[in-house]
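Let us begin with a simple case.
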Amino acid sequence: MAVKVNKDMTINEVLQLDRRTAPLFMEFGMHCLGCPMSTNESIEDACATHGVSADELIDQINDFFEQNTL
């Protein structure tokens, strides 16, 4: 069963599921994956801060998990 990520999750939660998702965040300009905000800021809030689409990022992350089931 594939993991389903949503905009309310934190970057850290997704990275804990699979560290191989890190490049997806970096492609969206989120290069500081170890910063304190990654542990308590939602993906939606992080995307707003970086001026990128949360929906597009979530789609790419969920595509990753569909192709790489845990």
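The second case is a distinct protein. As before, the sequence precedes its structure tokens.
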Amino acid sequence: MSKSQRSSNASATCRLDWRPSRLCAGWLLLLGPLAAWSLLACDLDSGISVPVALAALAWGVRDARRHARQPGVALLIPASAAAAHCNGAPMLALQVRWRGPLAFLCWRTPEGRTQRRVFWPDTLDAAQRRELRLAMLQREAAPGRASVAG
């Protein structure tokens, strides 16, 4: 039996690169034609349903392209109470909410603007999800910080 102690990187800094999700862009692209089809299939007058269906189709394409063209960001989240950074700028009041494999990050910039990023399963693998969870747990348990239930 080995007497060596297991090493843990629970206190390591979490470095993540956020990029737009192809999965999310695909779902957004699919919603446009589905919305258009549902408008054409209902009992609306064709004078109303056709223009609104075309608008829904265009809106879906616009949303998918807008999401896909968002610039990527580099996130640095220390496990201690030190400030997290997004592209070198401090992230104030950082919160992470989990919904299954999705991670929702929300923070404020020094100018007071709220920023949000969503990590989809195709942009954050299981090891990175674990690393982010551990870093956030360590941040919540750091001295001088109030624990936040999530």
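The beta strands are 14-18, 73-77, 84-86, 89-99, 102-108, 114-119. The two ends are 39 Å apart (CA to CA).
Keep these points in mind for the review questions at the end of the chapter.
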